Amino acid sequence: MTNLKTFKLIERISTLVRSEERKKLAALGLQPIHIQVLDYLDSCNSYSNTAAAITEYFGLTKGTVSQSLQVLERKAFIAKTLDPEDARIFHLTLTEEGRNLLELVHADDVFAQAELAVQNQQYSSIDAALLAALETLQKTHKAPSFGTCDTCVNFDVEDNHYLCSITRLPLFQAETDKICREHIPADAA
Ligand code: SF4
Description:
Layout: H1 4-27, H2 32-43, H3 51-58, H4 62-74, E1 78-82, E2 90-94, H5 96-105, H6 110-119, H7 126-140, E3 155-158, E4 161-164, E5 169-170, H8 173-176
Antiparallel strand pairs: 1-2, 3-4, 4-5
């Protein structure tokens, strides 16, 4: 069953994936919304592949959507075709370049890999698979781990009290469950 810990892991992985995706896209002169629009066009039907539907789906202004579509069209990631029944409507479809771009951006689908790892019984739960995926991502991108005390190399116990060995100050139980920017994974030491 999906619990709060699972959602938090998904949120942390998503944040890291989005941040890496932003870097990849910036190199291509694109922004996350451009990929979101391509993803939308890849999954919607022919009644829904219009600028108006995209505006409605993302809750953005017409101007923002129009600018994004201009960029995608200029870079040949989408193509426009006139509606055969209504000359005021254009339908938008992914070009081959658009599909290739989506494949490139989604090449490392962490969630699909985690699901596969659980199916292959590499991990006993989705949480364990997600945690492993998060740690791999953090190592690959040299991102700070922002973990909790129980997995930190600096976590210590002295005279029956929890202690952070960086500050040598006691840690209260409630604090040990919070994420920390100074966290260093114990298995990285
Ligand atoms: S560095 Fe942070 S995570 Fe590690 S023991 Fe100290 S307070 Fe906890």
